[in-house]
Design a protein that fits this description.
The chain is mainly alpha-helical. The chain is built from three helices and three strands. The chain has helices spanning 2-13, 61-120, 126-145; strands at residues 21-24, 30-33, 42-43.
Length: 154
């Protein structure tokens, strides 16, 4: 029974094998195919090594050069990615520092506004109250120009 199964597998695998033929046409072009060379073309002997984009007739020197170039390219790509990541980190850090400085400036403006508002509510002479109102309006304009509402904490 085992022998019959083995024989069946071997016979079933035979049609799956394929042979490649290399033919040189009358015009000198080389054609590869699964059928024997047609009339008018000449069969060309193929090497027994597998097909490759790397020439294997030079003792593997081309393959070594190719691998070395590939390694160098990979190293350059990795260094470029690392440099890009460092640049992005520096840019984010600079943006964060700028954001923190702007938030701190808005906090100082808000404290100044609160002090002026408290000063205005204290009942002062009319001339002093007008001066405080002008300063308060100026601080509120600065806060609006800097979009301080974006830096409010909930």
């Amino acid at each position: 029974m085992k022998n019959l199964l083995l024989l069946g597998l071997l016979l079933g695998a035979e049609p799956c094998s394929a042979e490649v033929f290399k033919c040189r046409g009358a015009d000198g072009s080389v054609v590869y195919g699964q059928q024997p060379c047609p009339a008018g073309s000449q069969a060309v002997e193929m090497d027994r090594h597998p097909f490759s984009v790397i020439e294997q007739n030079d003792g593997g020197q081309t393959a070594k050069r190719y691998r070395e170039q590939l390694r160098q390219w990979s190293d350059l790509r990795d260094k470029s990615r690392q440099a890009d990541a460092k640049a992005e980190l520096r840019e984010r850090s600079a943006q964060r520092r700028k954001w923190l400085a702007e938030r701190e400036h808005c906090r100082r403006l808000d404290a100044k506004r609160a002090a002026l508002d408290a000063n205005l509510r204290r009942g002062q002479p009319l001339q002093e109250a007008e001066r405080v109102k002008l300063r308060l309006a100026k601080v509120e304009d600065q806060m609006q120009d800097r979009a301080c509402h974006l830096y409010k904490e909930d």
